[in-house]
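User: Let's play a game. I give you a shape written as tokens, and you guess the letters that built it. Ready? Here's round one.
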């Protein structure tokens, strides 16, 4: 999961500090998510899936299909 989160960030030409700002956390905190030193909370996974327009299952490597599920209104 951690590599996938990093790869998505890099694919979007973003820096860790950019994602940390979006998630309202420090760059160190976000870096710890990417390297697996800190578990990614469910609310952060949801924000990341919305930002990257994918599913939490894709972030967690439960599927290789990056398409998001339909969201509730």
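Assistant: Ready! My guess for every position:
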């Amino acid at each position: 999961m951690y590599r996938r989160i990093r790869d998505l960030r890099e694919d979007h030409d973003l820096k860790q500090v950019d994602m940390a700002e979006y998630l309202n956390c420090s760059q160190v905190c976000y870096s710890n998510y990417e390297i697996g030193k800190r578990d990614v909370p469910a609310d952060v996974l949801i924000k990341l899936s919305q930002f990257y327009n994918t599913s939490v299952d894709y972030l967690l490597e439960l599927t290789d299909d990056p398409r998001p599920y339909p969201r509730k209104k």
